Amino acid sequence: MFDPFYPFDWLAIQIVTQLLSLSITSPFGSSLHFFLYDIPKILTLLLVISFLIGTFQSFLEPERVRTLLEGRRTFAGNILAAMVGIVTPFCSCSAVPLFIGFLEAGVPLGVTFSYLMAAPMVNEVAVILLWGLFGLKVTLIYIGFGVGLAIVSGYIIGLLKVERWVEPFVWELQKARQVRLPEDAETLEPVVLTWRKRFEQGQFQASEIVRSVWLYVVIGVAIGAGIHGYVPTAFIAQYASASNPLAVPLAVILGVPLYANIAGVMPITEALVNKGVPMGTVLAFTMSVTALSLPEMVILKKVLQPQLLAVFVGLMTLGIISIGYIFNALL
Q1: N or C end of the chain: which has fewer CB within 10 A?
Q2: What is the CA radius of gyration of the chain?
Q3: 302: enclosing H helix or E strand
């Protein structure tokens, strides 16, 4: 089968065995091979596919996304919000502005949460790396479960009618917008970008992603290389194998405080899978790092009262643990 990354593998083997005269099966040689092979592979994946996704995202300006979701109700709105979340950029620092902007525009609370859950968990970087490291099947299952969790959790939040647990200033902004809309509304001509501009935007996004995550990639690959070469398989099997019924919740608990960029977590994921940790356990860990990071919780605390934040965390935690067990049963 054709392997587009074979040149990276060949070069890494040559450096380890010929230049440094190390055995590829020794702990250090195995770790070094993992490190030298994964860094160019992951950065190439990020650069190429981020360019393609960034070009596509030029069709989805933030205001257009907000207009698309504005006024959506019930389950259909949750589905649309989660699907839009897959293809729009998101980071922890944008959580509060997005949350306020959506509610201010009249997007229901549950629909807003579906977007906020799907966007960080099933973002383009996660999809790129999953596809490159584990193939299409695992990637599609991950996307399906991630989007499904966002849809169901957002729908449940909508049914619970917990708007009273959003900080009051958010609703004041919504009222102010409704009052000023009739007199301030303007007809704006949509900005039409040429393909050259769209490609330039894709190039800019690709360079920004690589620039912002390369250090996480190096650190993550280094940790993954250490696990790959030095952590005994027996040790991993004892605590994280399918025979341990508590492996999935433990993986989720460990993932929450371990804030890291998804690009830095994925090499650790790869190393754990290579050591025999079940895919569901590893991806539950990955989801918890991505969707339940402490920085995002701290930021969301600015607009959510503790009760609603607890509902959000509880639904996501229960969902991710359930997905881990189901994933293990399927793969």
Answers
A1: N
A2: 22
A3: none
Is 6 inside a domain boundary? no
Instruction: Give the residue among 274, 254, 290, 268 at the shortest CA–CA distance from 221.
Output: 268
The pair of structure tokens assigned to 326 is 């189901």
Cβ-proximal residues to 17 (8 Å cutoff; 6+ apart), any chain:
23, 24, 29
pTM check: above 0.70: no
If one counts the domains in the chain, the total is 1
Rounded distance between C-alpha atoms, residue 183 and residue 160, angstroms: 35
Evaluate whether residue 214 is within a structural domain. Answer: yes
Please report, in tens digits, the pLDDT of each residue of the chain (331 residues total).
456 778 888 999 999 999 999 998 888 998 898 889 888 887 887 787 668 766 766 665 555 665 666 556 678 888 888 887 776 655 555 566 677 777 777 788 898 898 888 877 776 667 777 887 788 888 888 888 889 999 999 999 989 989 899 888 777 766 665 555 454 444 445 556 788 888 887 788 678 767 766 787 788 778 878 877 776 666 665 666 667 888 899 888 877 766 555 666 777 788 888 878 888 888 888 888 777 766 667 767 878 899 999 998 899 899 999 989 988 888 7
Q: What is the DSSP string of 87-124?
A: TS---GGGHHHHHHHHHHTT--HHHHHHHHHHHHHT-H
Q: Is residue 1 part of a domain?
A: no
CA dihedral 258, 115, 75, 181 (to 10 degrees): 150
Q: Tell me whether residue 87 is in a domain.
A: yes
